[in-house]
Design goal:
By secondary structure, this protein is mainly α. It has one domain. Helix content is about 55%, strand content about 5%. The protein is built from five helices and two strands. Strands 1-2 form a two-stranded parallel ribbon. The longest helix is centred in the N-terminal third of the chain and has 17 residues. The two termini are about 15 Å apart.
Length: about 100
């Protein structure tokens, strides 16, 4: 699951090719994301939370000649989750500890 810091969210949204399809309000997005997290965890599912950092994401897009869309952000996050095997929780699932700290805040 992608996680965005407030400033990163605004920058990613402003430079998004499909921004008309998504709300540009960080607080609305955050509330929705937390509901998704609660739902998944409530069902006993494992959830990978990956912080999307604009510079890294834009470099990834440029290297692949892709546009900034919801689909490419999800692909980026899925790729990062697959490569995050160096940090695992007790169940062996990869996670981004910084993102988890922000969710709890």
């Amino acid at each position: 699951m992608p996680w965005y810091e407030r400033a990163a969210f605004q920058r990613l949204w402003e430079l998004s090719h499909d921004r008309d399809d998504a709300p540009g309000d960080y607080d609305l997005w955050r509330r929705s994301a937390l509901k998704v997290i609660d739902t998944w965890l409530g069902r006993g599912r494992t959830l990978h939370i990956i912080t999307v950092k604009p510079e890294e994401f834009f470099a990834w897009l440029e290297a692949r000649n892709l546009q900034n869309t919801a689909e490419t952000r999800l692909t980026f996050v899925e790729e990062k989750a697959k490569n995050a095997g160096s940090q695992t929780d007790r169940s062996g699932s990869a996670f981004d500890p910084q993102a988890l700290q922000r969710v709890d805040a």
